[in-house]
Amino acid sequence: MRLEGEKFDGEEEEQKLVVGYALTLKKKKSFLKPEFERFACKKGISFVAIDVNRPLSDQGPFDIILHKLLGKDWSAIVEDYQQTHPEVAVIDPPDAIQHLYNRHSMLQNVVDLNLSDFHGRVGVPRQMVIMKDPLSIPDEVAKAGLKLPLVAKPLLVDGSAKSHELSLLFDWSSLSKLEPPLVLQEFVNHGGILFKIYIVGDAIKVVRRFSLPNITKCQLAKVPGIFPFPRVSSAAASADDADLDPHIAELPPRPLLERLSKELRHRLGLRLFNIDMIREHGTRDIFYVIDINYFPGYGKMPDYEVIFTDFLLNFMKSKYRKLVN
């Protein structure tokens, strides 16, 4: 933490904000791109890799710790470090991050919100958790009143490829072939467009991605089985420059996104995440959140170098003000 009298904007003297990072190799490659590091460096920010095989207290000094690693051991290390180094900001708390690794609990925060008639309505598709016994799934789904088609998602998001293997189910007999634990979510027709809402502190950036096309009743009657489908969040699936129906392509209202973002930041206790949102086809103001991801692929977000740099600088300014006041 900077001492009283020091500046963060670099106008009077050159300062360094040291960000220690603990990221997987894949995340480091996609996030810490050379152009980002160069831009941040010009603003007085340096990124230093954390060696997870050495005691964290022996490394640094850091102003901020930025991390996305799984596991109880790492969480314990960060929490212990916070106790002995309260002056270092940790983005974000491990226990809060853990909440997003369960696909059912992550969306419960949206269910608990009351955003009706606030420039639109935001909800969650009807869903249920299946923990065991695949043969009982058809009966459980029928009792819950869920309707086909259904999206099947692994319950836990553990960073493995398997945790991102999603499937679309068109008939009841296929349900007993699934592998619990999983979440079953009603598929909502949304015109084949998904809105990926990136949250970086107070900043909000929205991009369009191509998604699954609408499913008609005729298709539902004719197409049996389980159909795996890929993730639709990649930059290659961008729909921002496509010639789309304006009613489908129109972005969610800004006031709605600001309210949703603020509420979820507070409820989740997180600053870095993205929201996958769809608009119910044929409506203008009915939206559903279908997924929330911690520390998403910011490298795919337009202008992320500027947005993330500003976030780090403003975050430390805010923390410093709270300390001296």
UniProtKB/TrEMBL annotation:
<dbReference type="InterPro" id="IPR041429">
    <property type="entry name" value="ITPK1_N"/>
</dbReference>
<dbReference type="InterPro" id="IPR040464">
    <property type="entry name" value="InsP(3)kin_ATP-grasp"/>
</dbReference>
<keyword id="KW-0547">Nucleotide-binding</keyword>
<keyword id="KW-0418">Kinase</keyword>
<keyword id="KW-0460">Magnesium</keyword>
<comment type="similarity">
    <text>Belongs to the ITPK1 family.</text>
</comment>
<comment type="subunit">
    <text>Monomer.</text>
</comment>
<protein>
    <recommendedName>
        <fullName>Inositol-tetrakisphosphate 1-kinase</fullName>
        <ecNumber>2.7.1.134</ecNumber>
    </recommendedName>
</protein>
<feature type="domain" description="Inositol 1,3,4-trisphosphate 5/6-kinase ATP-grasp">
    <location>
        <begin position="119"/>
        <end position="313"/>
    </location>
</feature>
<comment type="function">
    <text>Kinase that can phosphorylate various inositol polyphosphate such as Ins(3,4,5,6)P4 or Ins(1,3,4)P3.</text>
</comment>
<dbReference type="Pfam" id="PF05770">
    <property type="entry name" value="Ins134_P3_kin"/>
</dbReference>
<feature type="domain" description="Inositol-tetrakisphosphate 1-kinase N-terminal">
    <location>
        <begin position="18"/>
        <end position="97"/>
    </location>
</feature>
<keyword id="KW-0067">ATP-binding</keyword>
<keyword id="KW-0479">Metal-binding</keyword>
<dbReference type="InterPro" id="IPR008656">
    <property type="entry name" value="Inositol_tetrakis-P_1-kinase"/>
</dbReference>
<dbReference type="Pfam" id="PF17927">
    <property type="entry name" value="Ins134_P3_kin_N"/>
</dbReference>
<keyword id="KW-0808">Transferase</keyword>
